[in-house]
Amino acid sequence: MKKTRDRAGTDHNGGAFQPLSRRRFLSRLFPAVASAGIAPSLLRYLLDQRELLAEAAELSREAVTVDLHCHPNRLSGLELDPAVAENMKAGRLDAGVFAVRGDYPVIRRDSSGRRYESRQPKSGELFQKSQEQLDKISESIKAGKLVLAQSPAEVLEAKKKGSPCAILSTEGSDPLEGDLSRVKFFYDRGLRVLQLVHYRINEIGDIQTEKPRHKGLTPFGRDVVKEMNKLGMVIDTAHCFFGHPGGRVGRESPPGDVLAHRFLYAAQNPAALGR
Questions:
Q1: CATH assignment of 64-273?
Q2: pTM
Q3: What is the pLDDT of residues 77-88, one digit of tens each?
Q4: Which of the residues 68, 71, 193, 260 could staple to 234 if both were Cys, CB 3.0 to 4.6 A apart?
């Protein structure tokens, strides 16, 4: 790989930061892993892959790095992990698609570890809980720890300033609660990605971990996809059931939707992927 010199920049507070070159990365790697108390097997892996990791650090200076699916809120509740912004800086992650969990109040694990809908949500419950999660992220943005990115141009601008940015999303569009006008409501709140379903069969369609009821998208689900396309939102099809051609998102959506993450259910049930 072509070697390049370090180039200084400024962070969102006006302070100087220095992108990592291969040499600077390697000089920091060994003390960091030695003091972290990590498992010997992981330590050996990091040392064996140090050149590759250094090249990745150097690439991150030019490339825009985005985590397509992450949870800034602690899994046990609504509180935002206070280390998110600093961890993003340390890992040279420019942007994260911050997903609030649309169905978390009603999802539980059974004895095998499988997640399922434990009860029917109360009217307005999922909408309210999603707002509370978004409020915590908004507090961090207002405090200057994160930058809200609502367009590709804003992601690029934040990278130039060395500021980690959040692209807002919801994992499971259950907070819509059958109300199409809420797509625009969430857009106005700054969300640019909606994952249609998660761990409960909602008003939008089927999920890959339960027996399908709607053969894919419902009529409301197709309307949601059309509304998202009109607004220019990204459609995340993670957790969607793909087994029935008539219910696929692709029938309503032009190229541009994403599959941010995928459960290994598909490896055991190839038909779930469709043809």
A1: 3.20.20.140
A2: 0.74
A3: 567 788 889 989
A4: 193
